[in-house]
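User: Can you model how 2-acetamido-2-deoxy-beta-D-glucopyranose sits in this protein?
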Amino acid sequence: MIVVFAFLFSVAVITPASINAQGDNYVTSIIDGNCTTTPDQDILFNDHVHKVGIPLFTRSATSTYYGDGIIYCVKAINQQSEEVGGHVNITKGGVGHTFVNIEMKSFVSHGIDFRISIYGK
Ligand SMILES: *[C@@H]1O[C@H](CO)[C@@H](O)[C@H](O)[C@H]1NC(C)=O
Ligand SMILES: *[C@@H]1O[C@H](CO)[C@@H](O)[C@H](O)[C@H]1NC(C)=O
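Assistant: Here's the modeled complex, given as structure tokens:
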């Protein structure tokens, strides 16, 4: 069951949920870097970003980590379905860096709910 779940999220990363008018690719969830082995001792940062939807509005949030370890895996897993879950983007840093900036944006009238895990050493 967990394997199937992980597979679905990988598919979501490879296949953009939608393409906007400018042609930028937006993704539902992110699994970036080498996430095959993520021992607990390598966890640098955990975040749960949750904002409820407000009718006719878009919600957004930023999750930022600055540290010492070199990041090798970034996960920003959407807790909602592709139809309502909004988008996520790594806007600074990430794999190979010691910092990462992750921006999340909801669809109109919907909330955002992402679980973020950053691994490194
Ligand atoms: C991913 O990390 C594991 C554990 O550190 C390592 O054994 C494996 O070779 C790595 N895979 C890639 C594609 O770098
Ligand atoms: C994601 O962030 C990068 C870096 O800021 C930016 O160039 C890119 O346009 C963003 N992608 C989307 C879909 O917003």
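A couple of observations from the model: Residues 1-23 have pLDDT under 50 and may be disordered. The chain has one domain: 2-120.
User: Helpful, thanks.
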